[in-house]
Write a structure and sequence with these properties.
With 160 residues, the chain is α/β, with parallel strands linked by helices. The protein is built from three helices and seven strands. α1 packs antiparallel against α2.
């Protein structure tokens, strides 16, 4: 079975590495200590602290495995090294105008884990990204939104 590579920006990979380090060096030791303290209280069958700590441990171990898998399958892309001839691609920063409202918005197309709409980062798998990818400055992208089709004009594409 072929392993699918997951696109991620350099910043996104650094965030995953930082999370993994925190999970291994802070969260895991903390939960191990919490389990030991709960065990010391005696009867485990009615010990809520023990059950909560075991659940937390399960979550942490699962997240560690998930982050390790993402990093091992990551295809790290540095947007500043892209040469896409002005087209919208993964990692590019795109300034668009909503043709209905006239609002101008700037988004960076990033991996699923990096998406943060408040900071202008949209997932490569989002409807807006799918509508923008492959288009160039001056093109109009049609995006299927819950309220119907929305049109965005691409004003600028940067690789920063």
């Amino acid at each position: 079975m072929a392993v699918t590579q997951i696109p991620v920006t350099v910043k996104g990979a650094e965030q995953l590495k930082e999370e993994l380090l925190r999970l291994r060096s802070v969260d895991r030791p903390w939960v191990i200590q919490a389990i030991a303290e709960a065990r010391a209280q005696g009867d485990l069958s009615e010990n809520a602290e023990y059950e909560a700590a075991k659940e937390r441990q399960s979550f942490i171990e699962g997240r560690i495995a998930e982050v390790e898998a993402k990093l091992s399958n990551a295809m790290i892309i540095d947007p500043s090294t892209l040469h896409a001839d002005g087209r919208c691609v993964f990692g590019s920063t795109v300034r668009i105008e909503d043709l209905d409202s006239g609002n101008i918005i700037t988004y960076q197309i990033v991996g699923d884990d990096e998406a943060d709409i408040k900071n202008g980062k949209i997932s490569v798998s989002s409807p807006i990204s799918r509508g923008l990818i492959g288009k160039s400055e001056g093109d109009v992208a049609e995006v299927m939104a819950p309220g119907g089709v929305k049109e965005y004009e691409i004003l600028e594409v940067q690789y920063i």
